[in-house]
Amino acid sequence: MLPCFFVSYELSHLEALEAESIFIIREVAAEFDKPVLLFSGGKDSAVMLHLAVKAFWPAPLPFPLMHVDTGHNFPEVIKYRDERAAELGARLIVASVQEAIDAGKVTEEKGPRASRNRLQTQPLLESIEQHGFNAVFGGARRDEEKARAKERVYSFRDEFGQWDPKNQRPELWSLYNGRHRRGEHIRVFPLSNWTELDVWQYIEQEKVALPSIYFTHRREVFRRDGMLMAWSPFLPLLPGESVSTAAVRFRTVGDMTCTACVESTADTIEQVIHEIKASRVTERGASRADDKFSETAMEDRKREGYF
Amino acid sequence: MELLRFATAGSVDDGKSTLIGRLLYDTKSILEDQLAAVERTSKSRGDEYVNLALLLDGLKAEREQGITIDVAYRYFNTVKRKFIIADTPGHLQYTRNMVTGASTADLALILVDARKGVLEQTRRHAFIASLLRVPHLVLCINKMDLVDFDAGVFESIREEFRQFSMKLDVQDLTFIPISALGGDNVVTRSEKMPWYEGPTLLHHLENVHIASDRNLIHVRFPVQGVIRPASAKKFHDYRAYTGAVLGGVLRPGDEVMVLPSGFTTRIKSLELAGKSLEEAFPPMSVNVSLAEELDISRGDMICRPGNPPLVGQDIDAMVCWLSEASQLQPGARLAIKHTTRSARAMIKQLHYRLDVNTLHRDEQSPGLKLNEIGRVTLRTTVPLFFDEYRRNRNTGSFILVDEGTNATVGAGMINGAAV
User: Fold this and answer.
1) Domains B221-303 and B310-417 share a fold
2) Distance between CA atoms of B63 and A296, rounded to whole angstroms?
3) Which of B7, B19, B268, B385 could form a disulfide with B86 if both were Cys (CB 3.0 to 4.6 A apart)?
4) pLDDT in tens, A78-112
């Protein structure tokens, strides 16, 4: 029989998730000489960065940040990205899809449904290779998508940046195997066990700053494939589509051509959490056109080296 | 809200996917677009019903072959707890996947078909859960609807399993009669089994006491790294050791010993990101500052002077082999990772291979193949600071890595120091 005072040694789910993520981030910093953290300015990468800062405080962040910029990002998010990096004194590397297009390394999709989403893989892999990064932190979560449900915390990538879902390293206890050869790298997902709701609750608890577009604002939008898209020069209208103004917010933040918004008047984190709890659609279902190509769209992109 | 991790074991035939689907659906964790996608795919495949297994099998190869290849993680929560399910497949590479899923689980859920009773696979699942020291075991006797909700069927399966489990080291065992298809005793209490007075499955998952499963007595703090921001003027004298508490409770002022040096000092402060802590306990990640400057680096262990872990290079352990490409053989040299220590290890001896179905010990076995479990003695290049796995799952476990391919090839649970 254990004494009853043991009952108090309980952690909340957010404390337990935070402890696990910080452990993972510290493991990487200890075992790899060239880590980098992918920072898009989205809420998941904002939380990941917050955890990384906590993991090493009061020392500065021991690795740089990287963003793959499609050139079609929301200006509010780019502003937030730059401010956050400057505030931390962190080095920010921007891998540019536009430059890859200009250099003829990738070919831009044509037509009104063209998106640069898939084109991000090439500059990402090239930048990893160029800088010699061998551990790349990503903010992906297993609850986001079914291919991601099978992803490891330490996910091995071969010299082509490829993911082989059928041949993953078993991952036991909290003993992560980061061994790799030169040219290979490990993608590390410290938020693997977090859900969308966990992320928002943590943002509320820790008062993590976010880009303004996560909260309600008036925007010119149009409806496509059942989703509400932000009207922009990057996304020409199809016949029958028309622009109107609505109060919206974004549940995920990515390239403007494949990220949809939802109608919302939520202007505080508390209200956003309230909406998520009541929502009957997943965040990727509500707002990501890139997953709708096929049942295995995410797996296909991940195999090629996508985030 | 507490976090509970559980592993599910069983095959499609046992109704495992239906059960998980039921748990997710009844707790409103499956959302409309996910259900719509499953409905679409079910229809295109010509399934007669909405096949909830499709919700769980995410990879292309899995959908094509109708099998589950790998451990998948699922998430749901109720007002009481957040749950992480490690869903392990019943077909290919069964042992490897279940060992993986069970390694971090607070609870293992094993499904039995009420019509078939305790099978070889049931015994294998239970054995693995006990080998991995999963603290709570739940046997769900499913498909009660197909045996007319008969109390006698439930009782006889319970008795048979109880007899078998005496051979195992099971700490907490619960039996629940359910029908995953109809939802009986899964989330809501069944009216068809008034003879059953225990909790529903969800009620049990929400209330099973897990806080005392951790070792809060033996202080174990393997050093992950050192924080010394010498460049930042304000924190010029700051020096702390980072890590996760794997055992015991640490408090400022406590006397501690550092291994391997054996020096003792006191804890000056505990904190994380500038926030002071009164105490630190598993599984917290913290910074520990000590009263005196000692030479401490990653892989060292902070403990209490009167209560140190075992220290040694010769280790007696159970190993589960995870590799298809190679075998564990005496004389093999491998990389080993234990807490935050990495070293090399040599397999000195394979004592026996354990048949996971019969628990028979084969002492003539020349090696261990994929999914086989055996008892070995190994010697490491440097001393490890370890505990018996049954005392502490975190300081009693290790992985073995092939130095040529870098693949994780073995999972080890320490019995003790080799004699």
Assistant:
1) yes
2) 10
3) B7
4) 999 999 999 999 999 999 888 888 888 888 888 77
A with B: how many residue pairs have Cβ under 8 Å apart?
188
Cα A290 to Cα A119, A211, A254, A298, distances in angstroms: 12, 22, 10, 8
Rounded CA gap, B366 and B372, in Å? 12
Looking only at the bridges linking them, the beta strands covering A227-230 and A217-224 are antiparallel
- Determine contact: B283 vs chain A, CB below 8 A: yes
CATH level 3 topology of B2-213: Rossmann fold (3.40.50)
What residues in B contact A282, CB-CB < 8 Å? 31, 33-34
Check if the beta carbon of residue B360 is closer than 8 Å to that of residue B372.
no
Q: Does domain A11-195+297-304 have CATH number 3.40.50.620?
A: yes
Closest CA to B18 of B190, B201, B179, B148: B179
- List the domain boundaries for chain A: 11-195+297-304, 198-291
Which A residues 137-156 touch B at CB under 8 Å? 142-143, 145-150
Which of A28, A21, A63 minimizes the C-alpha distance to A44?
A21
**Residue-wise pLDDT tens digits, B121-176:** 888 889 999 999 999 999 999 999 999 999 999 999 999 999 999 989 888 999 99
* B109-to-A283, B157, B382 alpha-carbon distances in Å: 30, 16, 38
Return the SS3 of B285.
strand
Is domain B221-303 in CATH 2.40.10.10, yes or no?
no
Tell me: ipTM over 0.85. Answer: yes
Report the pLDDT value the prediction gives residue A298, as an integer from 0 to 100: 76
Instruction: Report the CATH number of the B310-417 domain.
Output: 2.40.30.10
Nearest residue in A to B209, CA atom? A7
Is the minimum CB–CB distance between A55 and chain B shorter than 8 Å? yes
Global pTM value: 0.94
Distance CA B138, CA B200 (A): 11
Domain ranges for chain B:
2-213, 221-303, 310-417
